[in-house]
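Extended Data, panel c. Modelled sequence:
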Amino acid sequence: MIQKLYSHFIKQPLVCTDTRDIKQGSIFFALKGDSFDANKFAEQALNSGCSLAVIDDEQYIKDERYFLVKDVLCALQALANYHRRQLTIPVISITGSNGKTTSKELLNAVLSQKYKVLATKGNLNNHIGVPLTLLNITKEHDIAIVEMGANHQGEIAMLCKIAEPDFGMITNIGKAHLEGFGGYEGVVKAKSELYNYIKEKGGKLFVNADNELLKKLSDGAAKITYGASDAADFAGKYLESSPFVKLKCKAKNDTQSMDEKPVISTQLIGSYNFENILSAACIGHYFDVSDDQIKTGLENYVASNNRSQMMKTENNLLLLDAYNANPASMNAAIENFSQMEHSDKMVILGDMLELGEDSAKEHDAIAALLRGKKLTNAVLVGPFFMEAGKAIGAKTFADSGQAAAFLKENLVKNKTILIKGSRGIKLEKVIEFL
């Protein structure tokens, strides 16, 4: 069945899952969700230019352009895996609790200096996004970078079976999606599924030598290490973050000393991005990207989509990192912000979601951190921060709409403002009033 579907795909290798995003000749996969059944839209997709509609409800079949399968999602995943098995290029997979999308974008920027790279677009990193990413790989590509996200155990293992990566990297393992993973130990088990797959396949890992947990989990695997230590295969030296990260780096076997290496001046805020930047340089070096090309790729990368962005408005300087948040990334952002040499600071924070029974405790800990760092000029948004914020006298709001209304009526000027929260809180709503 998959070979027959693949014969359609190779004639015109385009797929879509949304009738609003149809390209002429593409194959439409009629996926189901909790509140929708795309089988109902198969006819519309065909009339809009699709060459084939893959469905799993035979009542919608009208002619030979309908391709009936038992389960559309399984068919999409199987097709992606079949396509991946026709490829001979290296496939690099990246996962982690924090920084995986930034690391992926940085690596793409570095490798693209030398190769034709296919990288996950945005955060299409789940059971649907990974297959769609793989199906975008063509014979023109030299390397693929596949980001993998998860919110429950077994998901990374399943994605590995689809993508069959040759190389893997875990950025870090922190307290994210605790609710779905069943606590921190569940997160560790889930994220390490990538390491386990690469070990079994005989592939290679890129491991942060400064992270004791990752070092332990990668025991017995073929690996290249990166970190601030001279013991790492690829070492970096953090210089500053005021506000953008500057660093130097070198391979262990490089005859030049670290002092002789040129400074890499990135356009990324936050010292916590040092390891993300270094990982991209390390992997680039492994794939024979020159030092000059690595420097160019890293220096030209500009963050977007509410991740580690700096924005200058008419009234304030904003450090916008509101795409996602969990205790580890929130702590890192606050620590970094507290060290920045700006006199008039303010924080706007949104609830960290999916922490389950640890939610109240983790939000209380962030409030305590703000008090300890003397960052009590704070606007805290969401039900958990509303409660935690009482202890530090912060202005608290149930949602971003209420916070935006307050900021519209109470103009903030001449401040440096950290904005961070989970995606679901939608803190970007407050930006126009800053």
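The longest strand covers residues 234-241. This feature is highlighted in the accompanying rendering.
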